[in-house]
Each structure stands twice: as C-alpha cells, then as structure tokens.
Design a protein that fits this description.
By secondary structure, this protein is an alpha+beta fold. The protein has two domains: 43 residues, no CATH class; 130 residues, Sandwich (Jelly Rolls), CATH 2.60.120. The protein is built from two helices and ten strands. The strands form two sheets. Strands 2, 3, 4, 5, 6, 7, 8 and 9 form an eight-stranded antiparallel β-sheet that branches. A hairpin with a 2-residue loop joins strand 6 and strand 7. The longest helix has 20 residues. The radius of gyration is 26 Å and the shape is globular.
Length: 188
C-alpha cells in the first residue's frame, strides 16, 4: 500500500484559505460632552448630536449668514482619532461649508452640496491626537443642525478564525497539485 505525502495537502490548505482581520472602531463622541454657539429648543441640545441616536440631533435655530454656528465635542482627554463623520440635519438642501478644528487648530473642511441626513466623513491619512473637535458652519441655506457625530478610534485588529477562499488562484492551485499527485502515483 502506498502512502500519500500529506504535506502537500497542508500546503494546499494554507494556499486556499486566509484569515481576515477586520478592524473595529469605537465612537469616542458618545462618552464626551458637547457645547454649541446656540440651541433652538431644549430637546435639540448639543448633547443630542453625540448620543448615538440618529433620530435626535442638535439644532442651533440660527443660520450662519451673520455669524458662524458651531458645535464642539470635548472627549475629556487627548485621544487618537482615525475618522470623523457627521450626519447633516438641514432643510432645504444646498451648498454648505463646515470647518473642522482639532484642539482649536483648523484641520480640514467639509464643503459641497448637502441635504437632510447626508453623511459627511473624513478619514485621516495617519491617526491624529486631540481632545476637542469643533465643527463650525460658515455657509448653509438652512439653520445649522446635526443629527449625529462619530469621532472614531480604530482598535487594533485581531485575526478572525473564519477562513476566506482565495478564489480563482486557490482553485488553480488545487487543480495543479491534484494533477501533480496523479502523475506521481502513475510513475510509481
């Protein structure tokens, strides 16, 4: 009886499957505090823009035509930030401009046409560190309001144990190794 070299199958299995590593992130804003230039109603206070609920939000009750409207999120301590997102709360739709400051220093601008529930997002090329994030709206066709902000910190990725197939190349490797084994058996 012939023995088959099982090391080929071990190599084959490792070629066929890889493990994925999905990075998770946490929303630092939900543990912070928020202040704002103004508030229209008590039920639309700044803290509603960081409560993790897209059904609530902050509304300044003012348009930015005469003075910019702003909301500032204090994370409580300097934190690593990978991404900032904001869900717009405006009516009517139109051109808006929002300047974003980290610890009082201008960092980037969201600018363009937005509508009710538009998602604005900025992913930093390299993580940044800040305690305070201020969003200042200087142009809007509407009152200034935000449904929700997310200030995201990426957590270290942990490989999962769920294998993912390599696709065409994995299948080609199986076919090639299978053919090689058959030829090898025929020669002996």
């Amino acid at each position: 009886m012939r023995q088959v070299d099982t090391s080929v199958f071990v190599v084959l299995a490792s070629l066929l499957f890889t493990c994925s590593a999905d990075a998770a992130s946490i929303n630092l804003a939900t543990n912070g505090t928020a202040t704002a230039s103004s508030t229209w109603l008590p039920s639309m206070s700044p803290d509603k823009a960081i409560d993790g609920d897209n059904n609530t939000g902050w509304n300044s009750g003012n348009v930015p035509w005469f003075s910019p409207q702003w909301i500032e999120i204090d994370l409580g301590q300097a934190s690593t930030i990978n991404q900032i997102t904001g869900f717009v709360d405006q009516w009517p739709s139109g051109y808006t401009k929002h300047n974003i400051y980290l610890d009082g220093i201008f960092n980037f601008t969201w600018e363009g046409d937005t509508a009710y529930s538009s998602l604005l997002s900025y992913i930093f090329q390299s993580p940044v560190t800040a305690q305070k994030v201020k969003i200042e709206t200087t142009i809007s066709p509407s009152w200034v309001g935000w449904k929700e902000f997310q200030i995201l910190q990426e957590l270290p990725s942990v490989p999962t144990s769920v294998p993912e197939p390599l696709g065409f190349f994995g299948i080609s490797a199986v076919a090639g190794l299978s053919l090689m084994l058959k030829r090898r058996q025929m020669q002996h």
